[in-house]
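[step 3/7] inverse_fold.run input=structure_tokens len=168
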């Protein structure tokens, strides 16, 4: 069974801290725009849908990792606020597609720009924290592999070597 070291816990905690700092920023920005976190995420999901994927509630719920009925409620509130609208597909009138309104596009663009700028500022700390998590895992794997090799084939497990071997 794999056991974590104190440095593993510290690396995970720092990574979670950096993620939480960004999420706190996001929550504040979204709230200042008069939206809820899920509403912004749904609008971003509509706008950022991969090519070939139709913006239906099922796909949105799946991409957001929420229940279908939760996505329906978010869409209802956004539609009531004038941010999105439902439209019937041309080839199959039973299919309901979602689209941003001009208001939704405008609000999303402003929020996404703020989020993009914040990520640019937060990136160095986020990447460093992720590297520490990955480094501790890489060190653990290397030690296990090294322990199973014959003594004359073992590699150094010094900190200097472990940093050089981690490539991102």
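[step 3/7] decode complete -> sequence:
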């Amino acid at each position: 069974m794999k056991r974590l070291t104190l440095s593993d816990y510290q690396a995970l905690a720092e990574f979670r801290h950096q993620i939480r700092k960004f999420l706190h920023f996001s929550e504040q920005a979204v709230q200042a725009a008069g939206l809820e976190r899920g509403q912004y995420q749904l609008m971003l999901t509509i706008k950022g849908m991969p090519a070939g994927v139709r913006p239906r509630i099922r796909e949105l719920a799946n991409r957001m990792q929420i229940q279908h009925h939760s996505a329906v409620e978010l869409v209802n509130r956004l539609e009531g606020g004038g941010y999105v609208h439902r439209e019937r597909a041309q080839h199959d009138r039973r299919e309901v597609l979602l689209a941003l309104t001009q208001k939704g596009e405008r609000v999303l663009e402003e929020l996404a720009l703020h989020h993009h700028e914040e990520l640019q500022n937060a990136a160095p700390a986020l990447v460093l924290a992720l590297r520490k998590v990955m480094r501790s895992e890489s060190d653990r794997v290397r030690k296990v592999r090294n322990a199973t090799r014959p003594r004359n084939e073992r590699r150094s497990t010094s900190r200097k070597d472990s940093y050089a071997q981690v490539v991102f």
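[step 4/7] annotate
DSSP finds six helices and two strands in the chain.
The mean pLDDT is 86.
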